[in-house]
Amino acid sequence: VKFAEALDETPAPTELELKTLRDLQARTKAAHQGTAKGKAA
Q: Per-residue pLDDT for the chain (41 aa), expressed as one digit of tens each?
């Protein structure tokens, strides 16, 4: 196991990154439920 000599804090996500992640999660959930756009419910 190797450890870094200096630790850095990861910056907080940007609004665009959060929006993108939320959209991806919503589309993934819809696909798993069979309610994706363009698909008959």
A: 999 899 999 999 999 999 999 999 999 999 999 876 655 54
Structure tokens at 30: 């819809």
8 A C-beta contact, residue 34 and residue 41? yes
Q: Is residue 41 a contact partner of residue 35, using CB atoms and an 8 Å limit?
A: yes
Q: Which two tokens stand for residue 13?
A: 């996500």
This prediction has a pTM of 0.60
Cα–Cα–Cα angle for 31, 32, 33, rounded to 5 degrees: 90
Asked if residue 31 lies in contact with residue 24, where contact means CB atoms within 8 angstroms, the answer is no
